[in-house]
Amino acid sequence: MRKKVLVPLLLIQMLMVAGGVFYWYYLASPGTLPDQEKIKATLNDPYNRVGIAEIQDRIFLDDKHVYIPFITEEEGHGISFWEWKKHEWQLSSFSTGSMPQIWKIDTDDPASHYIMWNFHPENNLDYLTLYLIKERGFSVSEGKHHYDPGIQMGFRAEVGEKSYGYTSIPEDWQKYMEAENKLMASMIPDSLFADFFPPAQYYFGWQSTTTEGITEYPSYPNMNGFGSGGSSTENLRFLNENDIFQ
Q1: Does residue 92 sit in the same domain as residue 38?
Q2: Whole domain around residue 171: which residue ranges?
Q3: How many structural domains compose the chain?
C-alpha cells in the first residue's frame, strides 16, 4: 500500500517541478533590459561585427519586444530588435543598412507589425511614404481562373527631429492583410501541379522626401549595410516613381 501511495506522490512532485521549470523558462515576467554596455557588447560580438559608437534609445513596443536604434563607429545608423525569450533578453535581428524594416512580432497578427527606420541626419529627411502594394496577377487553380487586381495603399510617416522612428501598421492595412492572408490560405491547391501561376502576394515599399521636397534615396553615408535576422523581419523595397501606380 505504501508503494502505491509513494508512486502518485513522486509523480505529482515531478509534474510540479516540470511545471515550475516551464513557467520560469517561458511564462515568467520579463527581467530588466541589459544596460547600454551589455547591449553594445552583444552587437560588438565578433559574430555580429557591428562596431557600436552610441546606443540612441530603447523603445518598448510591449513588455517583451524592444526597438533599439544605434550609431556605428563609421557613422552608419542602424536598428536592432530585442526579444524576451527563454527567460533572457535576446538580440532578435539587426541591420546597419539605410532601409526601413518591418518587424512582425506575431506573424499571424498584422496589428503587431511595426515599421522602423534610422537615417543619418545629413540626409535632411522630412517624411517617409510607406506603401503596401500588390501587383496585378493571374492564376489557374484546379481549372479555375483567377484575376487579381493591383492594390496600392500608402501613408505618410514624419521623420521628425530624431534620425530614428517607428510606426505601427495602419488599421486599413491590417484589415486588408487579414483578408488577403485568409484568401491565400484558401487558395492553396491540394495538388502541387494544380497551380501553374501562383497568386501574387503583397509587399511593402517606401520613398523618402527631403526638407527641400526632393524624393530620393537617402544615400549618406555611402556605405554598404549588413545585418542578421529571421522570418519575423523584412526589408521594405525602395520604390522609384515608375514603381508607383499613377
Answers
A1: yes
A2: 31-243
A3: 2
Cβ atoms of 85 and 230 within 8 Å: the answer is: no
Indicate if 100 and 206 belong to the same structural domain.
Answer: yes
DSSP labels, 38-83 = HHHHHHTSTTT---EEEE---EEEETTEEEEEEEETTS-EEEEEEE
Nearest to 232 by CA among 64, 102, 116, 134: 102
Q: Are residues 107 and 25 in the same domain?
A: no
The rounded distance, in Å, linking the Cα atoms of 43 and 34 is: 12
Phi, psi of 23 (to 5 degrees): -65, -45
First to last CA, the chain: 83
pLDDT digits (tens, 9 = 90+) for 94-118: 998 878 999 999 988 999 999 999 9
Residues 35 and 10 in one domain: no
Residue that has been written with the C-alpha cell 544615400 in this structure? 219
Model pTM? 0.81
Cα dihedral 73, 78, 84, 89 in deg (nearest 10): -10
29 by DSSP, 3-state: which? coil
